[in-house]
């Protein structure tokens, strides 16, 4: 990944150019809140918006995009197939519902949100068809481990172009990251700032002081230098702008190693093998 500026991209395995830094809108309320946050981001130069059916704000995302005078081709929109919509009979309709709410004719990227046992492989077959039909420019998965990716590989056909997982200094999973690199699967971070829990870390604070940057900026720069695309979420204009101000410095190898040393397999969300119990609580 060549890091240039906010409009820089990473090339997916099928040749699609995807911005390596975007705005996540998880928990942004549909309507004014999500519309404003997207306007702040697009005005600042962001060009990737990540939503999902589960977020219940696709209509607001679509309205925000429609209101701005930016060509559709210049905005990269991601959405995701929810747990309840998986299986051969529901996947196509789920995509159509998302497109209808977003007011779009196609998605730039569509992900299986969580790998529902007994269903995600069947959903993947349908997503391969939707990709072939041009309704999705790229397809991938979220919240998966290597064994899920291996199951998809055995299925054959078009393979995931992207894996979106929880990723931050406490949860790096370097072996999985290496596997994705070897198999031309772009890794993308959700919760890159660990829901704010990493912002008080003394090691990262020391690095931040060295560069006169915020801890969040250091971590987001670390993401990109590790080849990981990132979608930090915020509804606050100042933070959205701050998160993008990471292109006027570069971390040293020593800095990267120091941040890598924080790994302790801590998750803020569900484990990919046990998420059904998590969402049934």
UniProtKB/TrEMBL annotation:
SUPFAM superfamilies assigned: NAD(P)-linked oxidoreductase
Key word Cell wall biogenesis/degradation present: no
Residues holding substrate: 113
Pfam family, one: Aldo_ket_red
Keywords from the named record: NADP, Oxidoreductase
Residues annotated as the enzyme's active site: 55
Site (Lowers pKa of active site Tyr): 80
Entry coiled-coil feature ranges: none
GO molecular function: oxidoreductase activity, acting on the CH-OH group of donors, NAD or NADP as acceptor
Family: Belongs to the aldo/keto reductase family.
Descriptive protein name: Aldo/keto reductase
Provenance organism: Christiangramia sediminis
Lineage start: Bacteria, Pseudomonadati, Bacteroidota, Flavobacteriia, Flavobacteriales
